[in-house]
Design a protein that fits this description.
Layout lengths: L14 H10 L4 H8 L5 H6 L6 H12 L1 H10 L6 H16 L2 H12 L6 H19 L8 E3 L7 H10 L13 H15 L3 H11 L6 E2 L5 E3 L1 H14 L9 H8 L6
Antiparallel strand pairs: 1-3, 2-3
Helix pairs in contact: 1-4, 4-5, 5-6, 7-8, 8-9, 8-10, 8-12
């Protein structure tokens, strides 16, 4: 799944990428055109080698880069295709989404919050769940590395996706995480509810001075899991933390506020 800088691309989709999109989402050329409200032969011509230009090309690019956007289009326009085609494509895009543990984490937090949560708080919850897990167990919940936005927001790709498509319940995460992983996710979610966005950004920005940031292709930045783990192992030792809930002491010192129980 493409991340980070790829999301910002505005060029038209290539023929190879269009055919990959059709396979990824298990959607035929004519059904895709129907979903988009285009002429029946439009996607046929593009898939056969006539590169789409203008708004057509950028719209297909968005579908390719943003599976949540495709899912939104599919749900909104499902009456334009057969029930069989709709079900087949929906199952395919959900398989694609759940192949990424981070996508599952995004949905887990949204489900936990009953969709009453901001994109920023979602990614911060995921970041600190990952940090808690790496610091205490040396194990990562998510194998994906943490990319940073220009404003220094973690998991920038997912943050931008949520800003683009909105916070919405998409699929069940039952059985996708271990009980231990759920403990870290739940602890992070409960803890971060107590602190405001400005406080969370301040803590995260302060940490970045001590965590190595790597350069990505295209000029972006990321924090590797190894770097996150290295810093939070020191935090665990310094604050004598033995379980996720005890990270409150770290946040309390950083902000000067103690979370009420």
């Amino acid at each position: 799944m493409r991340k980070g800088a790829a999301l910002l691309r505005q060029d038209a989709i290539s023929v190879e990428e269009l055919n990959e999109l059709l396979i990824r989402y298990s959607i035929g050329k004519k059904p895709l055109a129907a979903l988009l409200g285009w002429g029946a032969t439009t996607v046929l011509r593009y898939a056969d080698g006539v590169c789409p230009a203008g708004e057509y090309g950028t719209h297909l690019r968005k579908l390719y880069e943003e599976p949540l956007f495709y899912l939104e289009i599919l749900e909104e326009n499902k009456d334009r295709i057969t029930p069989v085609a709709y079900k087949k494509s929906k199952n395919a895009v959900l398989r694609y989404l759940t192949s990424s543990k981070l996508w599952c984490g995004v949905q887990y937090v949204i489900e936990r919050a009953k969709a009453d949560i901001s994109p920023f708080r979602v990614v911060m919850t995921l970041y600190y769940a990952q940090a808690f897990s790496l610091g205490l167990t040396d194990g990562a919940i998510f194998t994906e590395e943490c990319d940073l936005s220009g404003e220094g927001v973690p998991y920038a790709f997912y943050h931008e996706q949520l800003r683009s498509t909105g916070i919405c319940y998409r699929f069940s995460t039952e059985g996708l995480f271990t009980k231990e992983e759920e403990l870290f996710l739940d602890a992070s979610y409960r803890l971060l509810l107590w602190y405001g966005p400005a406080e969370l950004q301040q803590i995260f920005s302060a940490e970045r001075k001590y965590i190595r940031i790597s350069r990505m292709e295209g000029g972006g930045k990321k924090i590797k899991n190894a770097a996150i783990g290295g810093y939070f192992k020191k935090v665990v030792q310094a604050y004598k933390i033995t379980r996720p809930e005890e990270f409150n002491s770290y946040f309390a010192e950083r902000t000067g506020r103690i979370r009420k129980r």
